[in-house]
Design goal:
Blueprint lengths: L4 H4 L29 H11 L7 E4 L1 H8 L7 H6 L8 E4 L7 H6 L2 H25 L1
Parallel strand pairs: 1-2
Length: 134
């Protein structure tokens, strides 16, 4: 995102909304899916409390499936590659996990094409937020 750790955890500027508040554990590849119905029940309520959210960064396939539904591409890679299609409301990303190091090596376009735009979007949103607070 191109922000400091301090800014990343500033809850007045950046919100973190997991797909579930309970870690379900590891699966054969990645994590066990979030509990069914959790996001459907809680995300709308929580987002109603955050009316100034400008862009929701969708990290991983579970978030993309929930928020994009049938609009997502046939794979996570294709969805991330076509991130511009979902802006300004959503910004789909691959999960920044050590398990995805191979994916990052196979998809060098992510670092050169996607991350600079992510940093730009975050910076613009934070600037708008700062200007509106004045």
């Amino acid at each position: 995102m191109g922000v400091s750790r301090e800014l990343f955890y500033n809850t007045n500027l950046i919100a973190h909304l997991p797909m579930d508040f309970y870690y379900p554990g590891k699966a054969k590849s990645g994590d066990v899916p979030p509990r069914k119905g959790f996001a459907e029940k809680w995300h709308p309520r929580l987002l109603d409390e955050m009316p100034n959210v400008e862009t929701i960064i969708l990290i991983g396939s579970y978030a993309q499936r929930y928020y994009l539904g049938k609009r997502q591409e046939r794979s996570l890679t294709e969805t991330v590659k076509n991130f511009q299609k979902y802006l300004p409301k959503y910004f789909p990303l691959v999960h920044p996990s050590p398990l995805n190091l191979g994916w990052l090596k196979q998809n060098p376009w992510f670092e050169s094409d996607v991350l600079p735009v992510l940093k730009e979007v975050v910076e613009k949103n934070l600037q708008r937020r700062s200007n509106s607070a004045l």
